[in-house]
Design brief:
Mean pLDDT: 77
Structural class: mainly beta
Helix content: under 10%
Radius of gyration: 33 Å
Length: 158
């Protein structure tokens, strides 16, 4: 059996080291964490509010159609998605046009190239998504400012 240690002697020695405090009685570990005050205990969310998709479609000329869906809205802005669908024949390029609503602007487009002129918006395909097989589709997304509306789209194909 190993040496027997005197508990009081060990505590006295630890308490006598420089920078330590001397305690009387046994040391009891504390499991309590810090006490916080002044904070709000109710979580808040800054996540944008989502709405049900609204859809607009165009019959389109030369073999394509386009449909719009509002995928998210928040104060002062919205996110939308446009689906471009080829008709019964494959297409090798597409252009989607629409008129912006009052007070709207488009701040970002992905999977397409945006040009605007006054209240008219035009998105043409990127090099990687211009060719669409017969009865297949591709999409592009956008971020806008203002209040979301459901635009009337026109789609033309090459």
């Amino acid at each position: 059996m190993g040496p027997v240690l005197d508990h009081d002697r060990i505590l006295a020695r630890i308490g006598s080291r420089p920078g330590s405090s001397t305690r009387s009685g046994p040391r009891t570990p504390s499991c309590a964490g810090p006490t916080l005050s002044g904070g709000n205990t109710t979580p808040t969310s800054t996540k944008p509010t989502s709405t049900s998709p609204s859809v607009s479609s165009s019959a389109g000329g030369k073999g394509c159609s386009a449909s719009y869906s509002t995928t998210n809205t928040w104060d002062g802005g919205f996110q939308g998605e446009v689906t471009v669908k080829a008709g019964s024949s494959a297409i090798s390029g597409w252009t989607v046009k629409w008129s912006l609503g009052s007070g709207q602007s488009i701040s970002q487009v992905w999977k397409g190239k945006l040009t605007t002129s006054g209240s008219n918006a035009t998105v043409v395909n990127e090099s990687y998504n211009g060719t669409v097989a017969a009865n297949a589709s591709t999409t592009f997304g956008l971020l806008g400012t203002g209040t979301a509306t459901t635009p009337a789209l026109t789609c033309t194909s090459a």
